[in-house]
Specification:
single chain, alpha+beta, binds L-tyrosinamide
Length: 102
């Protein structure tokens, strides 16, 4: 590889990293109190799932402890987490929602 080729490889890598924002997973966590129907409603409202998909993900959280509900750029993930937590709190449910870098 010539010095010119090496320069091209390095510049391309820098550019690709600049154009791709870091993505964050949103997870819902299981608890013993939040009703299953409420979790299904959250998954439909905030993560645009249909009834069947939302029920599957809710049952995965219930049996495995948590599940990924979606993957978003940082500001969108952060807004969604706050909206879910506030919606649960306003309905007196202890549902927990967190984000993790992908
Ligand atoms: N474990 C809850 C129950 O038995 C249901 C539940 C599912 C709660 C998912 C939280 O993120 C959750 N009522």
């Amino acid at each position: 590889m010539t010095e010119k080729d090496l320069e091209t490889v390095i510049l391309t890598k820098d550019e690709s990293e600049l154009n791709v924002p870091p993505m964050y997973k949103i997870l819902l966590l299981n608890d013993d109190f939040t009703p299953m129907d409420f979790v299904v409603e959250v998954l439909r409202m905030f993560f645009s799932m249909d009834q069947e998909q939302a029920t599957q993900i809710m049952l995965k959280i219930h049996t495995e402890g948590s599940a990924v509900c979606g993957v978003y750029p940082c500001d969108i993930a952060s807004t969604k987490v706050n909206q879910v937590i506030e919606f649960a709190r306003s309905n007196q449910h202890p549902l927990r929602c967190v984000m993790e870098e992908n």
